[in-house]
Design brief:
The protein has about 140 residues and is mainly β. The chain is about 5% helix and about 40% strand. The longest helix has 7 residues.
Length: about 140
């Protein structure tokens, strides 16, 4: 079983993820763009039991704009670490905070909200795959 270590920007919050992610890709929704301060967000989705906070749990802040995402950050440095997605039964550990993870994106989600076109040959979902409660509609590159 693989194990990856990650942390917030300053290292106050540290964690491990074990096993393999359920999915990896890019999200283009407005919420993820604003939260990440970028044109898209690289995600890695894990079962909640795969994530263990090993240091600084008392320094984790939470904000939820919607019941779909409970976004977590370090109260010391403001560095983003992960988002709980209770309706999906998954946690998004931002790919950028797991240095040893071999990021292998397989999909773009919420591509209908994109502000940056990406021509990489990966499927571009209008919203989410049908198995995750979305329409399952794909859009052209």
């Amino acid at each position: 079983m693989s194990e990856h270590h990650g942390s917030c920007f300053c290292g106050t919050v540290q964690f491990t993820v074990s096993g393999e992610p359920a999915a990896m890709g890019y999200c283009h929704c407005e919420s993820c763009r604003h939260w990440s301060a970028g044109p898209l967000n690289a995600f890695s989705l894990w079962k909640p039991e795969a994530l263990t906070v090993t240091k600084g749990a008392d320094h984790i802040g939470t904000y939820n704009k919607t019941p779909i995402s409970y976004r977590k950050w370090c109260k010391a440095c403001g560095g983003h670490v992960f988002s709980d997605h209770p309706t999906m039964g998954l946690v998004d550990v931002y790919a950028a905070v797991i240095p040893s993870l071999q990021f292998q994106p397989a999909v773009h989600v919420n591509y209908a909200e994109k502000v940056l076109s990406v021509r990489d040959g990966l499927p571009k979902m209008k919203d989410f795959p049908a198995e995750m409660g979305g329409s399952g509609i794909t859009l052209p590159d």
